[in-house]
Automatic annotation (TrEMBL):
The keyword Iron applies. Belongs to the hemerythrin family. GO terms for molecular function: metal ion binding; oxygen carrier activity. It comes from the Bacteria. Residues 17-122 form the Hemerythrin-like domain. Keywords: Iron, Metal-binding, Oxygen transport, Transport. This is Hemerythrin. It holds the Pfam family Hemerythrin.
Length: 133
């Protein structure tokens, strides 16, 4: 499946979040083809992007009084701490650990998270009338 097609299929029809998800998918794809020399910097870029992406969703949840905030935020925190463990492996030169994470664990988690928790958030924002026209 092409990158554009993946991004389209994972759309939750709420642009501010879809934009972050497209960036996430782009970075994952770059990591997939990265050399060992380029891998650590890109891995860190994906980590930093993910911190901001989750922060943006957490703000939207708070602004819209999203009822499942603590579960959704808890899932974000859980993944970030897992991410940090792999970041420290990559920092020590264990690139293969990082490759395993971005090839299997992270994409599978992302697809499930977007299609459940993030899409529920987008639906809530729209039903609360908070989505931009
Ligand atoms: Fe998300
Ligand atoms: Fe999320």
């Amino acid at each position: 499946m092409s990158l554009t097609e993946t991004i389209r299929r994972l759309s939750i029809d709420y642009q501010p979040i879809d934009r972050d998800h497209a960036e996430f998918i782009n970075l994952l794809n770059q990591l997939d083809g990265a050399s060992n020399a380029d891998f650590p910097a890109l891995f860190q870029a994906l980590y930093l992007h993910t911190v901001e992406h989750f922060e943006q969703e957490n703000q939207l949840m708070q602004q819209s009084a999203f009822p499942a905030f603590s579960e959704h935020n808890g899932e974000h925190q859980r993944v970030l701490s897992e991410f940090k463990q792999f970041q420290s492996s990559v920092d020590k030169g264990m690139i293969a650990f990082g490759r395993g994470f971005i090839k299997q664990r992270l994409p599978a988690w992302f697809v499930l998270h977007v299609s459940t928790m993030d899409s529920a958030l987008a639906a809530h924002i729209k039903s609360a009338g908070l989505a931009p026209e």
